[in-house]
Amino acid sequence: MSATPRRHVFLDKARPEAYKAALALSEQAGAAAEAAGLDRRFVELINLRVSQINGCAYCLDLHHRNAIEAGESERRIAVLDAWSETGLFDERERVALALAESITRLPEPEERLYAEDMARAVLGDEAYSAVAWVAITMNAFNRISITSHHPVR
Known about the structure:
The chain has helices at 11-14, 16-35, 40-54, 57-69, 74-78, 91-105, 109-148. With 153 residues, the chain is mostly helical. It is globular. It starts with 10 loop residues before the first helix and ends in a 5-residue tail after the last helix. 31% of the residues are buried.
């Protein structure tokens, strides 16, 4: 094993034009969420849950702060990993979190279809689409940060 320190490649710095495109996608997902009536606190719950599943420390730190700024409670953030075991999340949040988990984990088709059907039934197509884009975008940013080894400061 080498004693040479490992130097990481920050993908956002190595290919800023690609990162700009990812940021533009994120902005579009946020605009879709806003148009669908999903507030920032709701979106940050999705971002946090996706980041928990992916184990992205950088994004967990960032979106924890964003969620608090958006009015989310520390209590709900503390139990977010076990959201389905509590009564702290309403029906819209529950189906959105289930959909985000399904998009992130890509379970068997039957389980995915169930999460999609439930989310569409409760949220409607516009909010369903917005939640899906938020989760897809967060997954992309998790992978950028994990691969880049972005430090939590």
